[in-house]
Write a structure and sequence with these properties.
The protein is mainly alpha-helical. The protein is built from seven helices and no strands. Bound molecules: calcium ion. The site of calcium ion has 7 residues, from helix 2.
Length: 150
């Protein structure tokens, strides 16, 4: 973090990603770019948005030169957690999608934690809706039954 946003900053953020709590607040120097003590996708979004500003792309000169975000995309492939969280954000991912299509490296496997979360949550939500619907139907039938009985 030296005034230029570059791959060193991403590495720092990547190594702190997911860390931070009230007891263990992360610092700006550790990648907490929005000063909320946590290092998460919000911080990565800030980094990605400002990535390459104030610097020339010196990483890969010549015909293979990529824009800075392309270099960030390649670095991202080594951080599955950030990669998959970033993919989950449509706005953020729009910045990286062009690089995904030119096959710059193997896509990391989705981390266990991320794979486990969405599906049971969806299943639970569907079940809750189904139960609520059944309860509503049951209640209506009861009410009608009560009217008929009286
Ligand atoms: Ca933060």
């Amino acid at each position: 973090m030296d005034g230029q946003v570059n791959l060193d900053d991403f590495t720092v953020l990547g190594d702190s990603f997911g860390l931070g709590s009230d007891q263990n607040p992360q610092k700006w120097l550790q990648g907490d770019l929005n000063y909320n003590a946590l290092v998460n996708l919000d911080d990565f979004t800030i980094l990605a948005t400002t990535f390459g500003l104030g610097t020339q792309n010196m990483l890969r000169p010549g015909p293979d030169a990529l824009p800075p975000l392309g270099e960030l995309y390649i670095a991202l492939l080594d951080y599955p957690q950030i990669y998959w969280e970033a993919r989950g954000s449509r706005e953020l991912w729009a910045m990286f999608e062009p690089f995904e299509s030119i096959n710059l490296g193997p896509i990391p496997a989705m981390p266990e934690g991320l794979r486990a979360i969405p599906e049971p949550a969806t299943t639970a939500a569907v079940l809750a809706l189904a139960l609520a619907a059944r309860r509503t139907r049951g209640a209506r039938r009861d009410a009608r039954g009560a009217i008929l009985a009286s």
